[in-house]
Amino acid sequence: MAIDLRLLYGLPIVCIDVVFSGRRLHLENVLLDTGSAGTIVDADKVAEIGAMDYGIEIDGILGFDFIREAGLIIDANNMQVYSTN
Predict the structure, then answer these.
(1) Parallel, antiparallel, or unpaired: how do β-strands 23-32 and 60-62 relate?
(2) pLDDT per residue over 16-56, tens digit each?
(3) DSSP one-letter string for 9-35
(4) Of these four, 8, 12, 50, 62, which has the most CB atoms within 10 Å of its CB?
């Protein structure tokens, strides 16, 4: 399965679904950041099911911890992200 990658102000953005306690929340603007050690999700958004200020509207950051654990492959030429898991 491939996830589309798009640019927002030159930054790689993906859409994800967060599932917690059987509830699902769709997040539209999640930064895919290989330089970030950790993954962060906007608590106000997740509070809908369970304050980031970067100067742009983002719902979270997928950091290298998640990228590695999920076995993600970033295909910049085709602007997609694939999982090996």
Answers:
(1) parallel
(2) 888 877 888 888 889 898 888 777 665 666 544 334 555 67
(3) TTEEEEEEEEEETTEEEEEEEEEE-TT
(4) 62
- For residue 24, the model assigns a pLDDT of 86
Report the alpha-carbon distance of residue 78 to residue 66 in Å, rounded.
Answer: 21
Two tokens, residue 78: 């085709």
Percentage of the residues of the chain whose pLDDT score is greater than 70: 81
Length of the chain: 85
Instruction: Report how far residue 61's alpha carbon sits from residue 22's, in angstroms, rounded to the nearest whole number.
Output: 22
* Paired tokens of 40: 């962060």
Q: How many helices (H) and strands (E) does the chain have?
A: 2, 8
Give yes or no for a contact between 4 and 28, defined as CB atoms under 8 angstroms apart: no
